[in-house]
Design a protein that fits this description.
By secondary structure, the protein is mainly β. It contains three helices and 44 strands. The chain has a 22-stranded antiparallel β-barrel. The protein has a six-stranded mixed beta sheet with strand order 9-10-16-17-14-15. A hairpin with a 2-residue loop joins strand 12 (about 155-160) and strand 13. It is globular and about 90 Å long.
């Protein structure tokens, strides 16, 4: 407790004068006070509201010079702190032109206004790693761990709070999107250049977005036709002979309708085997991805709408270097391999109405249709899935009393129809027909109170009925409290429920000879025995801003506990098997993170982070063990340089990221012959990524980067690679890079 008090009190070393003022409007030349006007600093470090006489007092911990005054039905006003006591006159919307203020902001920052612990990641941050897709968008974000899922598919997976991506609610513009069959490759179907921003919410999410967020939510905001560049082109190539092209085109169809066409394609035609294990380091194949967006904006009537049409075709071939696509049966094929073909059709519709006269009242409707046809082969096995999904959400926003008290309420509907089969050419292995239909309907209510000074809290309750698991309730609570002018505490708790998609979430285990077993009469379609995953999440975050050597700094401490009450355990502690069963005992993940950001100069930003994770599960035959392939700790460092822009608009940008990844427990291989055994603990490893960008003008950039600069390669990533059709073949024991150093180069061209 003393350490926490000391940490919070760091902010008290800086003293400044409070800002006092009065918010008014002129009616017939009379000064009339405005009650409940919002007054807050431009950096979102704090705020307040005017009282019954229009008076306010706003503390100024950071010696800020600019603040904003806003009130429903009036134009915002941005002012300077020229006087510590002043009158501010607001003017109705129709009588004042918009006031705008440009200021520098971090490309990645923690929200100080929201009660939830949200990390905002801008498109500028994504450019630091020249990411190709959403799975590769977190290389410079210490809160998210990124690693390969296996040694064959080349697919990257993400983890948050010590838990894998199925425990994260993945949404696109607040529509749950990466779920069901898309758990396997869905992150790779969102090109990085399409992303406008990311919001990473640790812990329990809002009840508005659903009931599935066990460890958090990642929301992806796509580029909007109204605000996006008229034309954008990105060309990319890497040393693995992967080629990629992204092109965007937007146009204004009329004064209310804008259109955007977004195109992505990639191709990898040749295989590489840098670790000399006889298998391709990453798949060959190609992808075609087209997004057609329409945006309707009618501010006079308070209407905003989006209509999206997205088509994806993806093909990838993996396995031994000599594997020939199309030959499946081992008697006709001397080499192990497989192929995944995916065809996806998505249609989204979003509509929002804001009362032009009462702007705090709004109504929003979201609708999404997704059709998926995905067929995969893995040596002996085939995994075929057809999924039809419908999602709809109706949400109403209003206030209670004044704008400090807000409410959200609504209903949502989810429908998923699965035609899913596991077929084995090897007669000794089981086949599974896991076709099913899942339906759920839910209602929710969320209350938010924000005094714009010290306290912001959000309390929500959600009730859902699911045709397979029955009725359940999801309570959520978030609170932010500014203890001192520069110190903020955030606390949260909530319950999440999730129906496991067993095979899609564990598809990596098909890259092995393991037999699939359902223990204790549990079956993938009998939901009376397969309980839903349920977990409580508790979080505490302390954020402190201060000056170090007269430079802006921020220190963040996070601690989160995820405690499972029910869980479908994927037990692969026996090398020849994968066992699925309901949790008996405990399963939890405790995650601690400390993060320090420091502005070294006007051009250089530094970010340090350390994370420790303790994640354990009770296994029926093995007792309590650490979760497999989960790093015990991680040390992170990032240096970002943004050079000054000369008179021609040119500049240099540079990014350097270092990761130290701690030990990971490897599932037991002791039942294997000696030559096919691995140590029980992985080695520690250091990874370095770097990128340099030359900005020639607002229109043209060139970039060059290196991933895994030290050329680290995990040894024996594939067990029994010399006998892939044998009993001991397994490509799932991956804890680090498998193919060494990778370089890339690219260009960006803009027409604003």
């Amino acid at each position: 407790m003393r350490l926490i008090i000391l940490f919070l009190c760091l902010s008290n070393f800086t003293f400044s004068q409070d800002l006092k003022g009065k918010v008014l409007e002129l009616i017939d030349n009379n000064e009339v006070p405005i009650v409940g006007a919002n007054i807050f600093w431009i950096d979102n470090s704090g705020g307040t509201v005017s009282d019954i006489d229009g008076n306010f007092t706003l503390s100024n911990p950071n010696d800020l010079k600019s603040y904003i005054v806003s009130f429903v039905g009036y134009k915002n006003d941005t002012l300077k702190t020229n006087s510590l006591n002043s009158k501010i006159f607001l003017v109705p919307d129709s009588q004042l032109d918009e006031v705008s203020l440009k200021y520098n902001s971090k490309s990645s920052s923690v929200s100080l206004l929201s009660s939830a612990n949200i990390i905002n990641i801008s498109s500028e941050e994504l450019l630091k790693a020249a990411c190709c897709n959403l799975a590769e968008s977190f290389e410079t974000t210490p809160s998210i761990d990124v690693n390969f899922s296996d040694a064959i598919s080349g697919r990257k997976q993400i983890n948050m709070l010590g838990l894998s991506s199925p425990n994260i609610l993945m949404s696109i513009e607040n529509i749950p999107s990466i779920r069901g069959a898309l758990q396997s490759y869905g992150l790779t179907y969102i090109p990085g250049t399409w992303i406008e921003s990311l919001q990473v919410a640790k812990g329990s999410g809002s009840v508005v977005n659903g009931y599935e967020s066990v460890s958090g939510q990642i929301n992806t905001e796509l580029r909007k036709p109204l605000t996006d560049d008229k034309f954008f082109l990105n060309l990319f190539a890497n040393s693995m002979e992967r080629l990629e092209l992204n092109a965007h085109h937007t146009s204004n169809l009329n004064d209310k309708l804008d259109h955007g066409l977004y195109f992505h394609t990639n191709k990898k035609a040749t295989s590489a085997d840098n670790n000399n294990d006889g298998f391709r380091d990453s798949p060959t194949g190609k992808q075609l991805n087209i997004l057609n967006r329409f945006q309707y904006t009618n501010l006079e009537k308070g209407l905003v709408g989006f209509f999206d049409f997205n088509y994806v075709f993806d093909e990838r071939v993996y396995g031994e270097n000599e594997y020939i696509d199309g030959i499946i049966f081992p008697e006709n094929q001397n080499y192990w391999g497989g192929k995944t073909d995916s065809e996806i059709l998505k249609t989204n519709f979003k509509f929002g109405y804001v009362d032009p006269l009462i702007t705090y009242r709004s109504l929003g409707l979201q609708f999404a249709y997704t059709g998926i046809d995905m067929g995969s082969s893995f040596g002996y096995r085939n995994h075929d899935t057809k999924q039809t999904s419908i999602y709809s959400n109706l949400v109403y926003n209003s206030i209670i009393g004044d704008t400090r008290s807000k409410i959200k309420t609504g209903i949502s509907l989810t429908y998923d129809e699965y035609d899913e089969f596991i077929f084995n050419n090897n007669l000794s292995l089981n086949n599974f027909d896991i076709s099913r239909t899942e339906r759920s309907i839910g209602a929710y209510f969320e209350y938010n109170y924000d005094d714009l000074d010290k306290l912001n809290l959000s309390a929500g309750l959600r009730f859902d009925n699911h045709n397979k698991i029955g009725n359940f309730i999801s309570p959520r609570f978030h609170m932010k409290y500014r203890v001192f002018p520069k110190s903020t505490i955030k606390f949260s708790f909530g319950k999440a429920t999730r129906v496991a998609n067993i095979f899609s979430e564990n598809q990596k285990l098909f890259y092995s000879s393991r037999e699939i077993i359902f223990t204790e009469n549990l079956t993938p379609t009998d939901f009376s025995t397969m309980k839903a995953d349920q977990a409580w999440n508790y979080g505490l975050s302390i954020i402190n801003s201060f000056k170090l050597f007269n430079r802006e700094s921020q220190l963040i401490l996070d601690y989160y506990i995820t405690d499972f009450q029910n869980k479908v355990v994927a037990d692969w502690e026996t090398p020849s098997q994968i066992n699925f069963y309901n949790l008996i005992g405990k399963s939890y993940s405790n995650s601690f993170q400390v993060q320090l950001s420091y502005t070294l100069s006007n051009s250089i930003d530094l970010l340090f982070a350390y994370k420790n994770t303790v994640a354990e599960t009770d296994y029926i035959s093995h007792g309590r063990l650490k979760n497999p392939l989960t790093p015990s700790d991680r040390l992170f460092f990032n240096l970002s340089y943004n050079g000054s822009v000369n008179e021609k608009g040119s500049s240099w940008k540079y990014d350097f990221t270092f990761n130290h990844i701690g030990e990971q427990r490897i599932p037991s291989t002791q039942d294997n012959p000696q030559q096919y055994r691995l140590p029980s603990i992985s080695e520690k490893l250091n990874l370095i990524n770097t990128q340099i960008t030359r900005v020639f003008s607002e229109s043209f950039q060139l970039y060059l980067g290196v991933e895994n600069l030290t050329n680290y390669k995990q040894e024996n990533a594939i067990i029994s690679s010399d006998d892939p059709f044998g009993d001991y073949f397994d490509a799932t024991y991956v804890y680090g890079p498998i193919f060494g150093r990778m370089t890339y180069v690219g260009l960006r061209y803009y027409i604003k």
